[in-house]
TrEMBL record:
UniProt keyword annotations, A-Z: Metal-binding, Zinc, Zinc-finger
Keyword Chloroplast among record annotations: no
UniProt keyword Zinc-finger, yes or no: yes
Example GO molecular function: zinc ion binding
Organism placement in taxonomy: Eukaryota, Viridiplantae, Streptophyta, Embryophyta, Tracheophyta
Pfam families, per database record: Retrotran_gag_2
Cross-referenced PROSITE patterns: ZF_CCHC (PS50158)
Domain CCHC-type stretches: 217-230
Domain of life: Eukaryota
Protein name: Retrovirus-related Pol polyprotein from transposon TNT 1-94
Length: 232
């Protein structure tokens, strides 16, 4: 498009005079080349939109306006994502640091570069609430840390925290086992005492006494009953 690109920025000249007619012919040739070149590079959907345009300048201006606006919207979206991003207690620290890296890469892709000191300090501010003491410690340091050094420092701190939490959980489990073992002999002794007490205080079930008749009946002289029960 060497020598014809001016048709993208210069409107069609007036061809009312002979001098301008020559310029108009040159412009028409340049416009034809530019228009054909642009349309041949478009997708089918965009071709349907711009094929009715007669001047390359109109196509060019429309596309610049459209895609510049889209770039602006995308930039605002990326900046918003970076500003709203927060670290949580539930997610792993390494996973969230990778998310932060991705946000920074998105900013760079839009030519939005931030100072290393700024992104480092912001990452400190974004640490979860349980990291408050660690955050305060970093804020009172005298030497500024780069982002890569800060990330290494955070990962080491996270590993130490996980190790301490695992050791604490193991210690609590061991104490619980000791208590359980101590309780079992006490329960056994209690059960033995209870069984012993029950055996001492258990009595045979009372039954209706059977009284045997002593002596003989005064009426018939036979044993086994008294006079009131005698049928003789």
């Amino acid at each position: 498009m060497h020598g014809v690109a001016y048709a993208l920025t210069v409107p069609k000249p007036d061809s009312s005079t002979s001098a301008s007619a020559s310029k108009s012919d040159d412009w028409s040739q340049a416009n034809k080349v530019c228009r054909h070149t642009i349309l041949s590079a478009l997708s089918n959907d965009l071709f349907k939109v711009y094929c009715s345009y007669k001047e390359a300048k109109d196509i060019w201006d429309s596309m610049i306006m459209k895609y510049t606006a889209e770039d602006s919207v995308r930039q605002r979206f990326i900046i918003g994502n970076y500003y709203r991003w927060e670290m949580t207690e539930e997610k792993d620290i390494k996973v969230q640091i990778n998310e932060y890296h991705k946000l920074l890469e998105d900013l760079k892709s839009e030519n939005l570069s931030l100072p290393d000191e700024f992104v480092s300090e912001l990452l400190i501010e974004k640490l979860p609430e349980s990291w408050t003491d660690y955050k305060q410690h970093l804020k009172h340091r005298h030497k500024q840390m780069s982002l890569s050094d800060l990330i290494t420092h955070i990962i080491i701190e996270d590993a130490n925290r996980k190790e301490c939490a695992a050791a604490k959980a193991k210690s609590l489990a061991a104490k619980a086992n000791v208590v359980q073992v101590q309780e079992q002999p006490n329960k056994k002794r209690y059960d033995q005492k209870k069984n012993k007490y029950n055996s001492k205080n258990s009595f045979p079930r009372a039954t209706n006494p059977v009284f045997k008749k002593k002596g003989n009946c005064f009426v018939c002289g036979k044993p086994g009953h008294h006079a009131p029960q005698c049928h003789f």
